[in-house]
Amino acid sequence: MRIAIIGQGYVGLTISAGSISAGYEVIGIDKSEKTVASLNKGISHIEGISNSLIKSGIDSGKYRASSNFSEIQSAQVVIIAVPTPLDSDGKPDISILKSVVDSITPHLSEGTLVINESTSYIGTLREVIAEPINTKNPKVEDFAVSPERVDPGNLHFGVKNTPRLVGGINERATNRAADFYEKFCDHVVMVSSPEVAEAAKLLENTFRFVNIGFINEFTQIMNALQIPASEVISAAATKPYGFMPFFPNVGIGGHCIPVDPVYLQKNAQDVNNSSKYIEASEAQNHLMPKYSVERLEKFFGSLKGKKVLVVGISYKPDIADTRESPAKAVMEHLKASGAEVFWHDPLIANFEGQGSSQVSGEYDLALVLVKHQSLDMSAWRGGPIYCVNPIDSHRDWIPILGSSGK
Hints:
Layout: E1 2-6, H1 10-21, E2 25-29, H2 33-40, H3 51-59, E3 63-66, E4 77-80, H4 95-104, E5 113-116, H5 124-136, E6 142-145, E7 164-168, H6 171-182, E8 188-190, H7 194-225, H8 229-236, H9 260-270, H10 276-300, E9 307-311, H11 327-336, E10 340-344, E11 350-351, E12 354-355, E13 365-368, E14 385-387, E15 398-399
Parallel strand pairs: 1-2, 1-4, 2-3, 4-5, 5-6, 7-8, 9-10, 9-13, 13-14, 14-15
Antiparallel strand pairs: 6-7, 11-12
Helix pairs in contact: 4-5, 7-9, 7-10, 10-11
C-alpha cells in the first residue's frame, strides 16, 4: 500500500516512521524544499526519529520526501498532518489546512481514503475537508479523523503504544482507517463519528490546560501564604485515587495545549455558549510570565541595569521547538523591568532574531525556564541562578515558583 503524508513535522514524520515500520510505501509531502532535501539525504529534523530509520526507508524504497502534490495520485491513503495554530489575534487559524485541501483535491484518485490528523475544531473533517473535496472530486468518498497524540520527547509513550482514536464519515472509512493504523499501533479505538474523535482531542488537552491554570493560581495563593506549593502538591499526590498532580510553570507552550482549548471555545461560541473555565485558565496562564518576573524581583531585587541570562527557551525540555513558548513574554517583561536580556539554549540556534549566548561569568543572574538534559552550566561564573519550577532546581538553584519565599 502506498501512503502519502502531507506535512513532515513532528506529527507527519512520526506517522511516516510508523508507516515505514509497517511495511507501507511512504511519500512524505512538505512545502519546505530544505526539509525535503534533508529528509532525502536520510537526515531527520525531529527528536525521536533517527537518521538511520529515515535512511533505511530511503534505501529500501519505502520512503522518500517531495514537495510535489501530484505525487499523491497513486496513494491509497492520504494523511493530513499540518499545523493549525492561532493567528495574531489568538483565534483559530486553519489557513494551512485549507490550502492543503485545495492542493490535494485534483490529485486524489477514486477510492482514496483521506485521514485528518491535524487538530481543529469539531466539524472540520466534514466542513473543511470532505465537503470541498467532494464538490470538486466526487469520486473520493472515504474520510476519517485520527487525532494526533504525538508527545515530543516522551520516552515512554510513542506512536506504537499510544491508543489511536479513529472516526470515519461512514462505516467503511472507519474500518479502513482502523486497518491502516492497526499495522503499527497496538490499540485502535473506533468511535461513532468524526465529531466524537475531534471532540475527544480537544477535551484531552483542554483538561490539561484548565488544570495547569488552576495549579498556577493555587501556587500564587500558596506563595502569598508563604506555604511551599511544591511540597503541598507532593503531599496531595500521595493519595492513590482521585488526584492527579500538576505543577506550576512560567506558562504554556507548544502546538497543542495553548491552542486546542481555543478551538473548543470556538465551537461553544458557535452555539451561543462559552466555557468560563477555558476563559479563566487562559487568562491565568497568560499572567504567569509577568508573575514569574515579579517573583524573580522579589528574590533578587531590582533588575534595572542587570544582565540576565534566560536559559532554556523551547516550550518543554529536550525539544527544539519554540512554538507558543512563554520565553518570549518572559524576556519582554524582563526588559520592561529594565534588565539587559540574553538567552542560552543548547538546542536552539536563533530566536526572535537573536542568537544563543554562551554560559559565562558576565551576567548578574540566570533564570532557567526549561532544563534540557544537554544543558551545561559548568561555565557559569555569574550571580545566582533562579528557576521557575521547583522540580527543575538542583544544587544552588533557587526556585521562584512553588516555594514559600527567601
